[in-house]
Amino acid sequence: MSERIDEEILAEAITELSSIQDVIRWAYSQFESSHLFYGHGTDNPWDEAVNLVLQSLSLPEDTPDSILLSRLTTSEKKLLMKRIGQRINDKTPVPYLTNKAFFCGSEYYVDERVLIPRSPIGELIEKGFSPWINPDNVHNILDLCTGSGCIAIACAQYFQNAIVDAGDISADCIEVAELNRSRLQQDNVAFYHSDLFDAIPKKQYDIIVSNPPYVDQEDFAEIPTEFLAEPELGLVSGDDGLDLTRLLLQQADDYLSEQGILVVEVGNSAAALEAAFPTTEFTWLEFERGGYGVFVLTKEQVKVLANT
């Protein structure tokens, strides 16, 4: 397998390739023979090639085959070859190349200031957090460590009658989240520059949801290069990955309504969490589209944790 693709090969492709279909096939071949990791929207080189090419050309995922036979202009081919080269040589994830990521059916703007949306919590949002809560009783939702704002905005889309607040310690993240809120015209969501609960309105939330940093130091030392393009602040949380989660569990009780639920993603740190809180019965969720390490706690359980 090749580590890099040189300029001569890219220049040849610009000259020799003609159609969208040609470039997708060629990109697949280059990705297949390169040392790439897939984990930002796809899990294989074919889907990666399709995503990069179609998104770069502002074409939908279900573009008809007849359109794929269309000839590309020289400027379009130059753009595509530049991005294919960056994907291979720099290991840049496709969403950072196209500034596009998809979550719960909506397109989000992303760049290197925020993590790329990929949380399985999206599937839970689409189901209205059923069966864990009655959607008719949801009036206030809080999303902590919001990043691009995708979880908060998706909650606002699926709970149109609720008010959604969201916070992040990164001012850069809040800028991107505000951009996405404006682009998607979601008026029932507000973003706060906040270290966990510090600047969050003091009220009772029916759902508190969070995808905090949870990568431990051991995993981070072995993380694929593609993930190093993302902000480390959004990935790592102490030696065992649980620094932020511990604080969240200690503080959430003051903000959770009596019938409320706390939903948190901890990924690979799930085992460490259970070891750290051996008397707590975490409910771990299963997802039809894959994903793991997401737990649900009731108000009663959160209250017990806050008092221990």
Number of strands: 9
If classified by CATH, what would the architecture of the largest domain be?
A: 3-Layer(aba) Sandwich
Model regions low in confidence, pLDDT < 50 over at least 5 residues: none
Beta-strand percent range? 5-15%
Global structural class: alpha/beta
* Gap between N and C termini: 53 Å
Strand order of the largest sheet: 5-4-3-6-7-9-8
Largest sheet: 7 strands, mixed
Query: Helical proportion?
Result: 25-40%
Question: How many individual helices?
Answer: 13
The 3D shape can be described as elongated
CATH superfamily of the largest domain: Vaccinia Virus protein VP39
The helix/strand order is: HHHHHHEEHEHEHEEHHEHEEH
What is the C-level CATH assignment of the largest domain?
Alpha Beta
Q: Over all CA atoms, what is the radius of gyration?
A: 21 Å
Assign the CATH topology of the largest domain. Rossmann fold
Q: Return the domain count.
A: 2
Average residue-wise pLDDT = 96
Description of the structure:
There is one protein chain. The N and C termini lie far apart (53 Å). The chain has helices at 7-16, 20-32, 45-56, 65-68, 74-89, 94-98, 121-126, 150-158, 171-183, 217-221, 243-251, 270-276, 299-306, and strands at 101-103, 106-108, 140-144, 163-168, 189-193, 205-210, 256-265, 283-284, 294-298. It folds into 2 domains: 7-98, no CATH class; 101-306, 3-Layer(aba) Sandwich (Rossmann fold). The chain has 308 residues and is α/β, with parallel strands linked by helices. The longest helix has 16 residues, at 74-89. The model has no long low-confidence stretch (mean pLDDT 96).
